[in-house]
Write a structure and sequence with these properties.
3-stranded antiparallel sheet; 29% helix; single chain
Length: 127
């Protein structure tokens, strides 16, 4: 996302309040944010289970439910409900493993996403 984007200031404000991004200096923060793009997801959207292994997603507004389905029983359980400033799946970002999570938009969502490999590289070069 470029600083001249009409959504930049809003996204920046939300991320600055997030535990994940609050401590970054302005230069580092701006470089990171340049890797992200803004997306909106409509209420009820069930996203592909492999999304967290492909793209790192941070919620700007709205809520998302992360569920898991038991392959033996077919029962679905809610693992997390996340909101503005939260990211998913942070564990997948760090351990490079695919986790059985299914993101579902509980309301209209505004998110920013970046390719997971770009974010991993950023973490390695910016401890």
């Amino acid at each position: 996302m470029k600083p001249d984007s009409p959504f930049y200031d809003h996204c920046r404000g939300v991320l600055r309040k997030s535990v994940l991004f609050a401590g970054l200096d302005d230069s580092t923060f701006q470089k990171l944010l340049a890797s992200f793009r803004r997306e909106t997801w409509i209420h009820g959207t069930q996203l592909a289970a492999d999304l967290p292994s492909i793209r790192f997603t941070v919620i700007i507004s709205g809520r998302v439910e992360l569920t898991r389905t038991n392959p033996d029983t077919g029962r679905q359980i809610t693992l997390f409900t996340l909101g503005a400033g939260d990211a998913f799946d942070v564990v997948s970002l760090l351990d490079k493993m695919e986790h059985d999570l299914c993101p579902v938009a509980l309301e209209e969502l505004e998110v920013i996403t970046a390719p997971i490999e770009k974010v991993r590289l950023w973490i390695q070069t910016t401890p």
